[in-house]
Amino acid sequence: MKSPQPLKMISDMERIGDQAADIADLSVYIEKTFADTMPGIGRMAEITVRMVTESIDAFVKSDLELCRKVINDDDLVDDEFQSGEGQAGGADLRRQSGGQNRP
C-alpha cells in the first residue's frame, strides 16, 4: 500500500496556492492603503516563502532537521504578527474590507 503522505502534500500545496492567489489579490490594496501601518508584512512574506520551499525540500529529502526549522520559522511569522504592527494593520484591513478576504 502506498503512503498517503504525497496525496496530503498535494492537497496542502493546492490550498497554499489558493491562499496565495487571495493574498496576491489583496497585495496591491494593502500596499496602497496599509504600507505605513504594516511594516512587518514584507518580512512575514519572505519567511513564509522560504518556509514553503523548505517544507517541500524537507519532505522530498525526509529531512527531520529541516522540518524543525520550518516549524521554528512559523513561530517567527507569528512573533512578527503579534508584535502589534501586523495585528494593527490586519485589524484595519479587516475593518475596511468589511471582514472579507478581499477588498
How would you explain this protein's 3D organization?
It is flat and about 50 Å long. It has four helices and no strands. The model has no long low-confidence stretch (mean pLDDT 77). The N and C termini lie far apart (46 Å). Helix 2 packs antiparallel against helix 3. By secondary structure, it is mostly helical. The longest helix has 30 residues.
Most strands sheet: none
Helix content: over 70%
Helical run tally? 4
Instruction: Please give the number of β-strands.
Output: 0
Compute the CA-based radius of gyration.
16 Å
Distance between the termini: 46 Å
The shape, in one word, is flat
Summarize the structure.
This protein has 103 residues and is mostly helical.
Descriptive terms for the model:
single chain; 103 residues; mainly alpha; flat
Write the layout of secondary structure elements.
Blueprint: H1 5-34, H2 41-61, H3 64-82, H4 85-96
Helix pairs in contact: 2-3
